[in-house]
Amino acid sequence: MKMNKKKDKNLDAIIGIDTNLDGDIESKGSVRIDGTVIGNIKVKGHLIMGKEAKVEGDINSGSAKISGKVTGNIVAKDKLEFNPNSTIIGDVTTKNLLIASGAVFDGKCNMFDKNRKKDE
Question: Which of these, 66, 52, 62, 50, lies nearest to 98 by C-alpha position?
Answer without folding.
Answer: 66
